[in-house]
């Protein structure tokens, strides 16, 4: 039924390779099927002005897609002189998703910036960026802890994200581009490792959906995030 031949509750193949860049405090390449995203973490001894002096840390994110990450070349946003609305929305989503798993008091008054660069897109780029972004963040925090710059672990719970939707009338897990572009309902689910919800983005793209269908999508999301968290932990061990 699915174009890829996967079962309804089957994720695409996921891999996370860490330490892919020389200079970043944390880095990884996450592959979710044919969606590939490079995530890097940078530690800075400063925070935004609105929390300066509070003793709290900050985690923020930037997101971008390379010109040939898609089937036809996209113009670089830098050449247009500004970021598009989609880019701004996604990087804000990544930042607040990752902050939900952080004890900002334990982090101390420093900022960790997560850069997510999509080098190949086939659906679910924001979910892959969040999932890989947490790995880059985990690796950067590990360095802080090893150096003794933080006393207790500021990462209280892993954070991961997965897409779910209604495709051909069925609830499916982890939509690739052919499914995403033709789904009647499309959603992104961001959860912690302990299955607490951070954010759910749901929209009816061509048909409405019932409470029963929503429950099925939630069950699929919990299954998918559970699998992703295990892959995250293995990558960071």
Description of the structure:
It contains 6 helices and 9 strands; from the N terminus they run ββββαααβαββαββα. Helix 2 (85-99) packs across helix 4 (125-146) and helix 4 packs parallel to helix 6 (211-236). It has helices spanning 77-80, 85-99, 104-107, 125-146, 177-180, 211-236; strands spanning 14-18, 26-32, 35-44, 58-65, 111-120, 159-167, 170-173, 185-192, 197-204. A hairpin with a 4-residue loop joins strand 8 (185-192) and strand 9. The chain starts with 13 loop residues before the first strand and ends with a helix. The protein has one domain: GHMP Kinase, N-terminal domain (Ribosomal Protein S5, domain 2), CATH 3.30.230.70. It is globular and about 50 Å long. The strands form 2 sheets. The protein has a 5-stranded mixed sheet with strand order 1-2-3-5-4. With 237 residues, it is of the alpha+beta class. The model has no long low-confidence stretch (mean pLDDT 96).
């Amino acid at each position: 039924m699915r174009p890829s031949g996967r079962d309804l509750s089957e994720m695409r193949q996921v891999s996370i390779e860490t330490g892919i860049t020389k200079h970043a405090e944390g880095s990884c390449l996450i592959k979710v099927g044919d969606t590939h995203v490079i995530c890097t973490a940078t530690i800075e001894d400063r925070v935004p002005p609105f929390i300066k002096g509070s003793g709290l840390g900050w985690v923020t994110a930037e997101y971008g897609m390379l010109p040939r990450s898609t089937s036809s070349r996209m113009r670089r946003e830098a050449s247009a002189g500004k970021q598009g609305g989609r880019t701004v929305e996604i990087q804000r989503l990544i930042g607040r998703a990752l902050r939900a798993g952080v004890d900002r008091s334990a982090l101390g008054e420093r900022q960790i910036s997560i850069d997510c660069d999509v080098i190949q897109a086939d659906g679910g780029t924001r979910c892959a960026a969040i999932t890989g972004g947490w790995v880059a963040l985990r690796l950067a925090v590990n360095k802080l802890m090893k150096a003794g710059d933080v006393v207790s672990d500021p990462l209280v719970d892993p954070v991961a994200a997965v897409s779910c939707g209604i495709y051909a009338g069925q609830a499916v897990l982890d939509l690739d581009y052919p499914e995403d572009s033709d789904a009647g309902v499309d959603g992104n689910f961001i959860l912690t490792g302990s299955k607490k919800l951070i954010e759910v983005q749901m929209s009816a793209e061509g048909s409405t959906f019932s409470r029963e269908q929503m429950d099925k999508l939630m069950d699929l999301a919990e299954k998918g995030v559970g699998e992703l968290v295990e892959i995250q932990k293995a990558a960071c061990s």
